[in-house]
Amino acid sequence: AMDPQQRWILQLVWRALEDANLTSEDIRDERVGVYVGASNIEYGNLVVGDPASASPYFMTGNTLSVISNRISHVLGVRGPSMTVDTACSSGMVALDLAVRALEAGHVDTAIVGSISILAHPLSFVGFAQARMLSPEGLCRAYGANGEGYVRSEGGVAIILRRSDYSAAQGDRSHARIVAAGVNSAGRTNGISLPSREAQADLLRSIYQGEGIDLSRLAFIE
């Protein structure tokens, strides 16, 4: 009855804690927020045609909000716990919320993740009917001959801490987030169509606001 996304993100979070040299006991008494990006509820569609087969655990097992809440429940942490659904940008928006909470001092530690599995053909059919999927199975990002995107599965979890707090705790750190930001496309030719101008404005405001030297950028995804 449980959406595999809930189980998978738990495994990823546990591995992230181990990588950070932390245990659940280490963070249980801290101010810990959980921020997860997720938008797929395909697993629950498997029983839509047969409602009588739903178990007592169906609702908690197939609700987006519980993806993050189950992490808080299992680890026993009491900070903000939320699942963010902004479609393709869910994970990045969850990250931005975590960064804002850390900067504001609302939390000392943030568990950030994103998860997506493909479990039912309905979404494939719907996106295909909307002509969003590439008929040749290739995204061709930035290419003039791109005809759609390709769906895939994936999951990630990272542990964020304020730099001063992390240094005091002697944590092992892989990287530092210099800046983050979000915006929206506003009105475009279609509600699902992105705005190049809005995306450029966002990047420009982040770089200028943080004084980032563009010549020092080594990797762009």
From TrEMBL:
It comes from the Bacteria. SMART domains: PKS_KS. One of its GO terms (biological process) is fatty acid biosynthetic process. Gene3D superfamilies: 3.40.47.10. It holds the Pfam family ketoacyl-synt. InterPro entries: Ketoacyl_synth_AS, Ketoacyl_synth_N, PKS_Beta-ketoAc_synthase_dom, PKS_NRPS_Biosynth_Enz, Thiolase-like. CDD domains: PKS. Residues 1-221 form the Ketosynthase family 3 (KS3) domain. Keywords: Phosphopantetheine, Phosphoprotein, Transferase. It comes from Romeriopsis marina LEGE 06013. The keyword Cell membrane does not apply. This is Polyketide synthase. GO terms for molecular function: 3-oxoacyl-[acyl-carrier-protein] synthase activity; fatty acid synthase activity.
